[in-house]
Amino acid sequence: MKHHLFVYLLFTGVLPLVLPLSRKYYLIKEGRTWSEAQAYCQANYTDLAVIKSNTEMVNLQSVAQAQYFSSSAWIGMYTNINKWYWTFGNESVGGFTPWTPGEPNNLYGNEVCGFIGAAKWFDAPCSWLLYFMCFDDRENATERYIVITQLKTWYDAQSYCRQHYTDLASARNATENSIVGAKNYGAWIWIGLVRDPWYWTDQTTDVSVMKWWAGNTDDYLKNKSCVYLNGGLADVEQCSNILPFFCYLFPTQQRIIRMKVKSSQDVNDPTIMTAIEEKLKQKLKDNGMAENITVTWRKQSDGVVFHKEEENIAAVTN
Hints:
Elements: E1 3-20, E2 24-32, H1 34-44, E3 47-48, H2 54-66, E4 73-78, E5 84-86, E6 91-92, E7 113-117, E8 120-124, E9 130-135, E10 145-152, H3 154-164, E11 167-168, H4 174-182, E12 189-195, E13 199-200, E14 226-230, E15 233-237, E16 243-249, E17 252-263, H5 270-286, E18 294-295, E19 307-317
Parallel strand pairs: 9-12
Antiparallel strand pairs: 1-17, 1-18, 1-19, 2-16, 3-16, 4-13, 4-14, 5-6, 5-12, 7-8, 7-12, 9-10, 9-11, 14-15
């Protein structure tokens, strides 16, 4: 029979949290390019306007209405419209680009995914329902290219291919394009061709709240990468255009958390403190409070964060 003794230490510490409040928007009527507008917002506020809910859109529009503003203005939404890549291997599209004439045109500003028809490429909204082609790179694969005659969105098609095979099929050169084009049975099918998504200036990609004007059909020039708002609707334009712009600021408030931690280790160890911090951030995220929260430790007068209060000894017999 063995006896194991565990010493549990009880520590107390103080943890200040900086909690962001709702975004506050500011309209700057002085015209600038998109990049110049972003630099101005970053220097004077937080960044170019980020809008992630209908409430935030209403708040931003209220700022414009209060200033009797009804023109176009930059917001913090952009893309790299030239950057197309293959989802398998995250490989950039090279010099082989058999787009059908007039494509990609990013019609309505939301054509991010690619399909093939008659060995030619097209861009389209990822929400379209199409057949698709998977690629099987496994050693025991009996067939490399597999057409799936189920109607799915591009992202659902990608998930299916990754679950059952390897990924959506690539057509990186004339040989692969000929194979893929010959096996589509005359249908439009998704392949693993995708463009950089729309980003906000905080590097997130949730742009579902945005509603678009009808797109410009000359966007095949691929020189329109920045987004502006006009009357609550988004449109894409050359980033070098001169427009007014919206900035946003995250007002913050500080909250103090006093913690008691029970541990068999010294929680002032940086590794342990980091683990506690990550656990706390996950807890905040689970409660919808994680965005832009700053977590810092407050050292006490003797230079440490946690003070030991007492020891508990537990005996385990086996």
